[in-house]
Amino acid sequence: MIVFFSPSGPFKDGEVKSETSSRLVMSHQGFLAFAATVAAHAEEIKARAKRLQEAAEAQRVAEKVAAERRRVDESEGEAAPPNLPFTPLH
What's the domain of life for this entry (predicted)? Predict the structure, then answer.
């Protein structure tokens, strides 16, 4: 058995008054709107996290390539170029 509480007191399932019923519907609609907002923010956060992971991976690859170039240049006796900061293209 489900018991609801309202300003006029508790009542059992099936005895829902129209005023309380409309409040419950409005509350439910508000919750659905809130849940949709949370879901949209979660998708934005996932997209940002993915972009950050891709940028971090690109940075690691660029650092490996720069280290390999320095190693090759040093082994050939040439001066290695300065380590320039990597800026990912978006």
Answer: Bacteria
